[in-house]
Amino acid sequence: MEGFKIGELSTNSFVHKELSRKYLIYIPKSYEGKKEVPLLLNFHPFGTSAEYQLGISDFRQLSEDKEFILVYPEGAELASGEPHWNPLKKDPTNKSNSDDINFINDLIDLISNNLNINSQKVYAVGYSNGADMAYGLATYLSSKISAIAAVSGSMYELMSTGDQPSHSTSVLNMTGTSDSIRPYEGIDGSLLAVDEALSYWKEINAIKSSPIIISETSNSEDVIISSYTTDNQILTVANYKIINGGHNWFNLNISGKDTNNIIWDFFENTRTSLKYPISNNSKSYSGAFNEYTFVNQGNNKYGIKLDSSSTIDSLTGLSTVKFSDTSIDINKDVIGTFNQVTGLNTDSGEMFRLYNAAFARFPDADGLKYWIDQFSSGKNTRRVVAQSFLGSAEFTEKYGSNVSDETYVNNLYKNVLGRDADAEGLNYWVGNLSSGIETRYEALLGFAESAENKALFTELTGFN
């Protein structure tokens, strides 16, 4: 952590492609390095500096409150001495030939090598030319950028005509309808209109639903907010249309939240669950869906294996997996499920295990989300959830109807732990059920939360 000071703003630099590249970094006082924390990159407009951007959008208090690393990079100077961001990979008409996309890639690596950064929570925000840069990162560095916020900036037409991003990325846009520098309607042959940019990212993020649109008033300005969510209700694209707003870093105040808090809330609410590889490839398996399980291998890699096998097939590069009875979307049905699980001994981890135990299959994303919400909110206790599962047709199909206690316990061993019952365990559970010490739903909870099943959970999710 040489050159980094906890609780202080530090000015650092390193040489990138023969240019000395400067950045400011702030590490919150609470940072100890024991757990992964998010990283926020904040980009200044053309002709200004990292210090200027800090002055108009100071996220340091939020960095303390939310515990994330805050970085203000600075653009390369043009011949005129004015700092500028080059958000494109190649464009002979652009002001700069500086390889800023690669600079930010290397800056993220440098910081991640020195601090404990959560690679799933790397965000970019920018104003004007800095917002253009945020769009460039979402386009060309989507494997590392989870979400962006663009304030009074534009997405260049060239960004939408080349190779599409390798991963989907959440996008928040804020633009005034009277902006003459980055017009809301775009500039033909150069800048996309805001609606065109939104449509592009809706497609990238596989959004098919209509937006939720609300009108707010902020400091006497009318703001129309459009929010787009995926099928599993994850916010991924949002637009703040400031009526008659100019070319500004907007000082919004909506429902008691300023611009910085609105942006950070967007980043948090996306749950960074859309770090999905984009692909149109599929693979077929001969068995039924419930004969297979999925594995989170870490570093955005996922696998699939037969329940009866230890061989794991990679899902990298696939968009769809077809089984004999159904097809699933890797992004929505596999990654969307894994990304709801936040730890071993958490509400989400417990609901994942209970769901998996009850139905002997990988939880579907929508169903898991529903039961996590029910349990976490206190609407349902774990016992109520377990009772609900026992009363379902799917549970009856899996465990049988009106079966003996011995058959029920044998099915628990098979469906939850994937093995035959041992004599001692079988006698214990059958005895408890027969004597009324425990009910069948309590036995289900016991198996779901057993040390053996938690070990299986760790193998699937990586949490321990």
UniProtKB/TrEMBL annotation:
Protein keywords: Carbohydrate metabolism, Hydrolase, Polysaccharide degradation, Secreted, Signal, Xylan degradation
A GO BP annotation: xylan catabolic process
Cellular compartment(s): Secreted
SUPFAM superfamilies, alphabetized: alpha/beta-Hydrolases (SSF53474)
Domain Phospholipase/carboxylesterase/thioesterase, chain residue ranges per copy: 73-184
Higher taxonomy: Bacteria, Bacillati, Cyanobacteriota, Cyanophyceae, Synechococcales
Name of the molecule in the record: Poly(3-hydroxybutyrate) depolymerase
GO cellular component: extracellular region
Record GO terms (molecular function): feruloyl esterase activity
Keyword hit for Signal: yes
DUF4214 domain ranges (all copies): 386-457
Record bears the keyword Lyase: no
Major place of residence: secreted
